[in-house]
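Subject: Protein record for review, amino acid sequence with backbone structure tokens
Concerning: The relation between a protein's sequence and the shape of its backbone.
How to read it: Take the token row as a discrete description of the fold.
Enclosed: The protein record, placed directly beneath this head.
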Amino acid sequence: MGWTELIVIFCVVLLFFGSKRIPEVARALGRASREFKNARDSVVDEVKESIAEPEKQDGRTVSERQLPDSGQKEK
């Protein structure tokens, strides 16, 4: 996106919202952006924690459990 596109967008926003409401709109966009970032970070942290903690089932970790048999018996 170049400078000319930014100037055109700014002019359209200025005409649409007026000069008095632009600071309000900018603050609202900043808050929404911050809330979205916080929610995203929260989800990422939860996923990382769930991956880092070994899953427990019947008192054994995933690495201690036997994998299901593939249907072929060893000879």
